Fold this protein.
Amino acid sequence: MLDVDGGWTEYATTLAEGAVFCDSGGAFDDERVGFRCLLDALSLPGVAGAVALNPLHLSPRPQVVTSLVLHIRRTGCALRVRDGGLPDEAARLCAGQPELRP
């Protein structure tokens, strides 16, 4: 597990461990190979959801965050953002989703 910002490893161990998906550029969802791989993984049977430390781990642009959250939620999986702070529209997409538990 990567210790991205001094808190990821500790936080990830409180949840069932899985995989870490990283992108190395591209502000648009169709340019993000890591994100496409995440969506593929979320489509597998038995997968409950994804975790991000904060919305900036998705994108610095609120409209892109909302688009990415929509893609995640369309898989039927939950998205948990540890530090909160999702744009309002993205937060509404996550309302009522199942709770991710360790």
In short: The radius of gyration is 13 Å.
